[in-house]
Amino acid sequence: MLSGPTCSGYFPSLARKSSNISYLHHNGGWLCFYDTTILQLDVLKIYNRKLSSIMVTFSKIMTERLLLRALKGGSNTKIITLNGKKIRKMPSALEKLPGLRTLDLQNNLISKVCPELSTLTQLTLLNLGNNLLEEVPEEIKYLTSLKRLHLFGNRICRIATGVCDGLQELIMLNLNNNQLTSLPQEVGRLRNLTYLSINHNQLTMIPTEVCSLENLYELHLNYNQLMYIPEEIKLLQNLRHLFLVRNNIEVLPEGLCHLKKLKLLDIAGNVIQIFPAGFQELKLREFYCEGNPLFVKQPITAKLPKVIWTLQEITARFVLHQLQENNQLIMYSLEYYPEIKHKISKAKKCVLCGKPFLSEWLECVQFVPPSKNWKISKNLQLIPLRILLCSYRCFRWRGPDVFGIVQE
Q: CA-CA 20 to 30 A from 151: which of 28, 61, 315, 392?
């Protein structure tokens, strides 16, 4: 390392004679490069804006030299790191490095990958973060050994067809800070994916195929425009960390309560008022929900309206009751009416009496304290849970912490 005061136009004599400099730090003044013997300078820090053009030229020279050095290594070259070199075009010479395992080109000006990228079949880590890419390119599907892919901080608004087909070894995908409005269904083919982060995009929905990523351990979807989470999220049985900060989510699905391994849930800054029944049974260690308009326990007196069930509801409740009694005739008959059987399968049970109902119920809220094992948001004293009652008769027999919901 060399560090020195302002010089008027030349390298210090020690620097000019050295061919083994790893770091040059210069604080101001003009600096001209007359010496060509410095072959191994890796990092240059100059705190003077007047030197920007010189630094760009020097960076280009050093980039070319680093590539030449890598090419001399041929198949023995395993790692190339060219961060912040102002590279606008990926070097086509990459095809001459078949043994490359790590390619780090973040913080450059690359808007398109070169076709030769597809020859790097032994590559395990690719970092193209903070560039100018507008899509996840098709060439990436040929990187069949790839395990970690960083594409954060680009302008990506689409994912080329077929990209996920060849990425069967991928375990980590980072697409933060892009412009994605949707994900293709084929993302569900990334069977080995354990970490998926798509923060700061414009997603409005999550395809159900994401819920087929059975090895997914951590999912980040902060700062998007999600309205809801699919019920199929219950299939992510290995999920430990789920981040949904600053979206437009109104309701959490009941399937979330089936994530037995979930340890951290962050839903801060959404529009959630109530949680699904069974939510309090989650084995969480951390739970954050600040910034949501949660129901609070402020009971008021209201007159119960008269409810008259429809003929469909009366019939459905009769059929459901007969199914509970194992009525063989009803069970046999339903096989000939698949549409009715499908509707019946959507039935719910009253929390108090346990009787089934189809489409008419009384929505209530039950307030329960959060688990003592949870690390929680400040001021969260009671968790509002959504419960369904089959009738006002059951409502009259409710417990002291169960209330009807008044629509203002």
A: 61
